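Project outcomes to date are best conveyed with an example. Our students and postdoctoral researchers have been running inverse folding experiments weekly, and each run begins with a structure described purely in tokens. The record below, which covers 116 residues, was selected by the lab manager from last quarter's runs and is presented without edits.
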């Protein structure tokens, strides 16, 4: 059976999202099921923010990320911005997580502090 272009594209997106999720939960040290949970524990929230950032830097829209994560697109955007600010402030643990994710091939764009 031959896959359609849309099915192939969809499976590539899914595998990209799955790989990003697995890398984030491993680096952040949380269970995979927690990333989509309503948990407000700091380590879970930080993991979510990293996943938002990776997906955004991979070309996904705020709305699409929100739909995948069961969040409003505004919550996704604010989480992304909060992580950027905390990284700019030099939080060592977060910088270590970012560096570890970069070693796994994920891109983190440099941001202008005036843009946050």
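After processing, the design step wrote out the following sequence:
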């Amino acid at each position: 059976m031959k896959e359609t272009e849309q099915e192939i594209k969809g499976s590539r997106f899914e595998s990209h999202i799955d790989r990003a999720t697995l890398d984030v939960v491993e680096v952040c040290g949380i269970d995979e099921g927690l990333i989509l949970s309503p948990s407000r524990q700091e380590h879970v929230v930080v993991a979510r923010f990293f996943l938002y950032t990776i997906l955004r830097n991979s070309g996904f829209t705020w709305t699409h990320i929100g739909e995948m994560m069961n969040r409003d697109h505004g919550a996704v955007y604010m989480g992304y911005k909060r992580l950027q600010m905390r990284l700019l402030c030099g939080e060592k643990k977060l910088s270590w997580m970012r560096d570890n994710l970069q070693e796994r091939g994920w891109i983190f764009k440099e941001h202008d502090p005036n843009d946050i």
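The two ends are 48 Å apart (CA to CA). The chain has one domain: 19-115. The training component of this project remains on track.
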